[in-house]
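Example record for the data management plan.
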Amino acid sequence: MSLHRVNPVELSPPTGFSHAVTATGGRLVFLAGQTALDTDGTVVGETLAEQFRTALANLLAALTAAGGTPADLARVTVYTTDVADYRARARELGLIWRELAGRDYPAMAVIGVVRLWDEQARVELDGFAVLD
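Corresponding structural encoding:
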């Protein structure tokens, strides 16, 4: 299995994502949306950054349980209730991403939503990975 990140020079330089990811071979793992829920099902963290850290850790825990690693992520979608806050904290969120997932960025999108399943949730991440 191999993932190849594609970032054409005619597009703006990507920061914290890849424009495209190709995958050959392997097994697909579809990851359900993860918010900042703890093991009791309670949303933890007040700030977007705190919730992002937990949501990403939850996504990576599901990926690990399926036999994958962060480098296997091909696509991640981020849903947030406050896109302006997400943009304002992009640097901080990028540091959290690199700490937990490294520098192999998947294709990504950030989508603003009115609310998430749990009313207290500020961010949710889902995606898919390609494993050997």
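Summary line stored alongside the record: The beta strands are 2-6, 20-24, 27-34, 73-80, 107-112, 123-131.
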